[in-house]
Each structure stands twice: as structure tokens, then as C-alpha cells.
Write a structure and sequence with these properties.
Length: about 210
Amino acid sequence: MSEINRVRDDICRVGASLFNRGLTAGSSGNISVRLSDGGWLMTPTNASLGALDPDRLSLFDASGTLLSGDAPTKEAFLHFSMYGERADAGAVVHLHSSHATAVSILRDVDPQDALPALTAYYVMRIGRLPLVPYFAPGDPNLAHAVKALASRHHAVLLANHGPVVAGASLVNAQYAMEELEETAKLFLMLQNHVLRTLTPEQVADLRQRFHLA
Ligand SMILES: [Zn+2]
């Protein structure tokens, strides 16, 4: 199978998996993958991740010109903001997943790092999670705010909206997104409990052991 057909199938399979497990609803959420020729495949506008058609995915060339498929998601700028700042990004996943979005709405969340280091796997797959201030859909300031963080962070949380995660591959981005969502769920379950989070020393040890940025 050619690379492009394999990637088309991967995007549809991952989209259906995320949708069927309730990780994003309706036509929310979008996925993109960078191709070896520098172009991209991206999920279209008004498409449910649960029912993607591989032939209708939006195909872009390396300059960002749409070559074929349906019009891309209106949130394409989130993906291009990540790719523009991260040469190592091979895929981007953006969801309106319930628990991460709930955390993005908490008033007292730390804007530098929205979730504490609850588990080693969260530290290893996400690390720090800055909160991007709220902007209305379509406001170009949202793209600017994501770009300003993307060179230093492969995952960001959009306030009152949802998470955006880049990975070296689609499976890496998917697994990091799922770790983020599960950690957000734990964090919400633990509200009103006294936490024993990993210590700064334990986080530093993980960063050193696993060569994390
Ligand atoms: Zn969104």
C-alpha cells in the first residue's frame, strides 16, 4: 500500500477509535499527519471523527495549498501553528475531550502548567501543559498564542475549548492525547482530596532517565 493510502486509513481508524470511546463528540475534533513529501492529510470541516471517508480527507502540498478532498477543518490553523514551530511533529490531534476540557474551565488552574505530575506516564508523554487564553473561534490571536508556545511545548490546553497535542507519529500523538485525557480525569476525581503528586526531584529524575526535553 502506498504511504498516502496507509495514512488515509490510519487517520480514519484512529478517528473512529477516539470517537467510539467518547473522546470527542459530534463533528468536534480533528487530526492531521505530515507526509514524507512535506504535505499533509487533515480531517475535513463538518466531519465526524467516527465516520471519516478516506477519499475525502483534505490533502495539502508542502506549501499548504489544498490539492484534493473536502475543505479542511476550520481549526486547520491549530495544526499549522504546531507544524510551523515543530520540525519534529509528524502528526497533530485536537479534541474537545470532556475531562481535559473541564480542566481548561477551572478558574484556578495554573496557566503555566494546567495539570500536576500525577503519574510518571503523564510526565513522560506530556510533561508541561500550558493553558492558552480563551479566544473566540476564528480569532487570529488564537493562532498567535498557540505559535508562541508550540516551539517549547508539544501539548497545549486551549481555555474553555480543549487540548492540542503533536507527536512524532500519529500513534505517538494519539497515545499522548489519551494520557492527557486520563490524567485530567484523575485530577477531577481527586478534587477535594489532598494529593501526593510526584515531587520536583522525581519529575527531574524522569526527565533525565528518559531524555525528555
Ligand atoms: Zn476545537
